[in-house]
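Q: Okay, next protein. This is Ribitol-5-phosphate xylosyltransferase 1 isoform X3 from Sapajus apella. I've checked the sequence twice, so it should be correct. Can you predict the 3D structure?
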Amino acid sequence: MLHDQRPYLCNFLGTIYENSSRQALMNILKKDGNDKLCWVSPREQWQPQETNESLKNYQDALLQSDLTLCPVGVNTECYRIYEACSYGSIPVVEDVMTAGSCGNTSVHHSAPLQLLKSMGAPFIFIKNWKELPAVLEKEKTIILQEKIERRKMLLQWYQHFKTELKMKFTNILESSFLMNSKI
């Protein structure tokens, strides 16, 4: 669906944790009626194993949505960001630090999500889900041709991102093994 009008403005399929930003996200979507324009499927408990049906639903949601809402969960970064990229659905990423030890904003000024930012990820970063209604209103004004170009740019960026990471990882492994073999 690279060149087609997608039926959903955005999507979020995931677990809603009590007193979390995900709960705030759901409230904001419902408040403005945007939950009717988006593929929203919340659940109260995390499921360790997806079924074939739930996987198909998730893939369809990514494929049929212009934006994928990526709230933080236990960690700031999650698989949803990368899966959205692979389907050409622009990630709307909650740009906040979770309690874990994945980064420290006093030491790393671009934390969280520093790798994505340093590589120019064409995402929409937001600090608070209260910003979402304005993002969705703007999204409604974008014509199909612009969305198609944006999808292409996202897919190209994601391919480049994966290639760059593979090369960096390979170089680190090679230099580690070469250094060890010379000792």
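A: Here is a summary of the prediction. Residues 15 and 46 are 6 Å apart (CA to CA). Residues 144-182 form the longest helix (39 residues).
Q: Noted. On to the next one.
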